[in-house]
Design goal:
- The protein is α+β, with helices and mostly antiparallel strands.
- The chain is 31% helix and 32% strand.
- It has two helices and four strands.
- Strands 1-2-4-3 form a four-stranded antiparallel sheet, with helices on one face.
- Helix 1 packs antiparallel against helix 2.
- The longest helix has 17 residues.
- It is globular and about 35 Å long.
Length: 87
């Protein structure tokens, strides 16, 4: 799980700067009785209305899926990526 979360943090920060022109990226980690949640938000541009995923987001989904988790993206502002892995 740690390796998947590190991969997601690196890719999400790169995407925020490269595609969203973000100045700030916030990474939050939460732990509950049933899961671990990683949330990455940025203050960059919202995704366009015809937002399409490139290779980065599917690779993040694959990384978290390999440890039984899910990954969701909200392309509106603030752009948010949330990965949840069961405990």
């Amino acid at each position: 799980m740690a390796e998947a979360f590190v991969t997601i943090c690196r890719e999400a920060a790169t995407n925020a700067v490269k595609h969203g022109q973000a100045h700030n990226v916030r990474i939050a980690f939460e732990e509950s009785d049933s899961s671990y949640t990683l949330r990455v938000t940025n203050d960059g541009l919202a995704g366009p209305s015809d937002f399409r995923e490139g290779t980065g987001l599917p690779s993040m989904r694959e990384a978290v899926g390999a440890v039984g988790g899910t990954c969701q993206v909200t392309a509106t502002q603030p752009f948010t990526l949330e990965a949840v892995v069961p405990r």
